[in-house]
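Input C-alpha cells:
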C-alpha cells in the first residue's frame, strides 16, 4: 500500500460515505488502536522516569521542599 497524506477533512468525508455499521466498526478499531498506542507510550515514559530516578536525575519531595529549593 502506498503512503498517502490525507487531510482530516478528506478522511471525515470518506467516513461519512460508510454505513452506520461500518462507522461503528471503524470507531471500535480506531479506539482500540489509540488505547494500545497510548499504553505503549505510557510504558515507555514510565521506564524512562524509572531510569532517570535510578540515575539520580530526579528526586522525591514535597511541593514545599521544591519551592524552598527554588528560592535558594
Amino acid at each position: 500500500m502506498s503512503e498517502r497524506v490525507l487531510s482530516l477533512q478528506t478522511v471525515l468525508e470518506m467516513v461519512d460515505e460508510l454505513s452506520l455499521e461500518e462507522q461503528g466498526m471503524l470507531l471500535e478499531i480506531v479506539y482500540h488502536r489509540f488505547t494500545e498506542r497510548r499504553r505503549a507510550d505510557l510504558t515507555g515514559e514510565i521506564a524512562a522516569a524509572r531510569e532517570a530516578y535510578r540515575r539520580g536525575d530526579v528526586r522525591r519531595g514535597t511541593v514545599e521542599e521544591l519551592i524552598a529549593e527554588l528560592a535558594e
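The CA atoms of residues 66 and 72 lie 10 Å apart. The chain has a mean pLDDT of 92.
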